[in-house]
Amino acid sequence: MMKRIFIELQERSYFVYIAHGILKDTKFRWKLKKGDVAVLITDIQVAPLYLKRICNTLNSFGVITDRLVLPVGEQSKSLSVLDQIFTKLLNKNYDRNIVLIALGGGVIGDLTGFAAATYHRGIRLIQVPTTLLAQVDASVGGKTGINHVLGKNMIGAFYQPVEVIIDLDCLFTLSMKEFSAGLAEVIKYAVAFDASFFNWLENNLDDLLKFHPQSLMYCVYRCCKLKASIVSLDEREIQIGKRSLLNLGHTYGHAIESYFSYTGWSHGEAISVGIVMAVNAALHLQKFLSTRDAMRIKLLLERAHLPVHGPQEMQSKDYLRYMARDKKSRLGKINLVLPVSIGRARVFLNIDQNVILNSIEYNLIK
Amino acid sequence: MMKRIFIELQERSYFVYIAHGILKDTKFRWKLKKGDVAVLITDIQVAPLYLKRICNTLNSFGVITDRLVLPVGEQSKSLSVLDQIFTKLLNKNYDRNIVLIALGGGVIGDLTGFAAATYHRGIRLIQVPTTLLAQVDASVGGKTGINHVLGKNMIGAFYQPVEVIIDLDCLFTLSMKEFSAGLAEVIKYAVAFDASFFNWLENNLDDLLKFHPQSLMYCVYRCCKLKASIVSLDEREIQIGKRSLLNLGHTYGHAIESYFSYTGWSHGEAISVGIVMAVNAALHLQKFLSTRDAMRIKLLLERAHLPVHGPQEMQSKDYLRYMARDKKSRLGKINLVLPVSIGRARVFLNIDQNVILNSIEYNLIK
Ligand SMILES: NC(=O)c1ccc[n+]([C@@H]2O[C@H](COP(=O)([O-])OP(=O)(O)OC[C@H]3O[C@@H](n4cnc5c(N)ncnc54)[C@H](O)[C@@H]3O)[C@@H](O)[C@H]2O)c1
Ligand SMILES: NC(=O)c1ccc[n+]([C@@H]2O[C@H](COP(=O)([O-])OP(=O)(O)OC[C@H]3O[C@@H](n4cnc5c(N)ncnc54)[C@H](O)[C@@H]3O)[C@@H](O)[C@H]2O)c1
Ligand SMILES: [Zn+2]
Ligand SMILES: [Zn+2]
Q1: How far apart are CA B359 and CA B354, in angstroms?
Q2: CATH of A179-361, one of 3.40.225.10, 3.90.1150.10, 1.20.1420.30, 1.20.1090.10
Q3: Chain A contact for B349, CB < 8 A?
Q4: What is the per-residue pLDDT across A315-339, written as a single tens digit (0 to 9) for each?
Q5: CA A296 remoteness from chain centre
Q6: Whose atoms come closest to the Cα of B137: which ligand?
Q7: For this UniProt entry, what's an example GO CC term (chains A, B) (predicted)?
Q8: Active site residue A243
Q9: Residue A106 known to bind ligand
Q10: Active site includes A257?
Q11: How far apart are CA B271 and CA B278, in angstroms?
């Protein structure tokens, strides 16, 4: 069974295809034609698992494939690795008619997406996300970019792929830790936008953790569907509106990631703690989130094997330092996305520093 | 007197304003409001001439200004200088609400434009071109980018400014050599698109070379108007169509620039030789350009103090090596824009290598 989601963005519209085994399906029609040159960009962990499979399939309908295998990890989202990609492409004399295929997690997706956005001022891009996080979030919506020593995702572009191919079979080789990291974003969607999906997660989390095929399909489909509707409303995140709500937990989370220079804590783990801190802030501000809903959120994260306490090394002031630098902040004032009930979130502007300190400190006590 | 041109690009539409003295005109309304933070990016040659003037004006209506002064020259269009800009902006904690102002020639315009396209995935950009070349060409149309060791303008983005402010007074401080370089692009427009403008140039070139104010206004206005209509038709240069015709002379020209690693020959000088070589190729292909028109083009370039012979160091095979790498080429086949009469040009696909060799060699004989 295959599912298809249309991302409506005028002349930049495209489809997301979701299926088990789609990468080895020689009957599935990619948006590529005979004679096209596709350069697969992936990392050393994903390459041995899926590179051959996808090349065989593409070659079987006459697509010429080339590849670039990069090191694993967030450090690859840098200007210097980006330059490596350009050097490879220019050495081969590739013109603007080639297609880049991002085969991997969010790191490969963001980096390859940005390379596609800027090589010859923009070439075609296909996202083939292989982590849960990338399947439900990073690969859809056109955010691409790299990090700077002074901040995460500070350099990038909004650049839409021509299609997104999601093979749910790829999830089977993920470590439990990586799978859980993806669940952090899944739970984020449910908390911010969709109460009935949150209920579904409460009832089906155990099946998901056992990689039950139908549950995986439903979960990934539902998240992509949510992302699709949000992205269509606000492609470039211009309004402080619905699209910003995707950042629930991220202002806190980025502080954790930055503190460890993106090496200690994974994005998903950091976001999980961030969601809990956002829940705390919502509780502190009162009149919004109920304690019961707060408990349900925290419990679901725990059941997904996600951390709900911040790293012991970090003090609340460490968070503040990084949070003031966040994209959603302005002139040192901190804005946050907070849940107001399960399935609903809002942007709160210029939040009192004490509320933020409390939301963090409350969480440091184990 | 001020002239205004509308660049029609749906939600990315903007105005180009052209006037003498517009940078010190405190009555002119910029697309900036009180409290906005504008970071001016310029080079060490332009800074002492115009930076104070423009800051005073902007400060007079409450805009907060900051500045970054970069080295002069094509070498600044690099990943490492781009990184310098990001570092400066991030060190100041600037968010996506700031505006970048590119104050300078095409180098500053292309580099600053690309920085604006990619900082926080895109911030506002105002182009303030100060060379003739940048006023008639580089600042309008949204092409931004940097060079790679392996090729010129290989990395970049299509990114439109929110406005372009052209102060014709800036041209008075240009060296004659730089002014002539701009005339190469002016003559390119006339040859490729506009026979009556070509006639006007034949009649008014001497006034232009004396910086006659009305002539400058007419010349810059006419070129921007031509560029505007072309850009509106094909924002991202997707078709091999009208917009590609802007590349008349550029495939040869880029070969010259690359050969000297962008340090020996200026863009305008290289393009001038490129136009003559394109004229030669058109003559060789026969049935198109008349010998008389060919002579008129060459003569006008010479009157503008532009070179019409290629550099002595370069042999025809040196050209070919770089030309095969050009954006308009595909799979080693060379495509060229050639004039078919004064005011009309066409793209010719997959040109015979001998025609190209002849068009170059014919030109090496002084
Ligand atoms: N663009 C967006 O909208 C967006 C959204 C969310 C996150 N992100 C970005 O995504 C990144 C995190 O992505 P991620 O969590 O996928 O990390 P990742 O890309 O680093 O992948 C995690 C690890 O899993 C490995 N891996 C990938 N697929 C595998 C598979 N099928 N089997 C076994 N191992 C596999 C990778 O090699 C890597 O070691 C961050 O940089 C974050 O900023 C982007
Ligand atoms: N984006 C586009 O569409 C486009 C089109 C054409 C050219 N370009 C690019 O433009 C660049 C060339 O631009 P350029 O010719 O303006 O070169 P440039 O920017 O290097 O400027 C030439 C010199 O003139 C100086 N200068 C600038 N304004 C001055 C003034 N008013 N008075 C005195 N000196 C002044 C500069 O400091 C520099 O030394 C190339 O990199 C080319 O690729 C881009
Ligand atoms: Zn995320
Ligand atoms: Zn040019």
Answers
A1: 8
A2: 1.20.1090.10
A3: no
A4: 999 999 888 776 555 556 788 999 9
A5: 23
A6: 2
A7: cytoplasm
A8: yes
A9: yes
A10: no
A11: 10
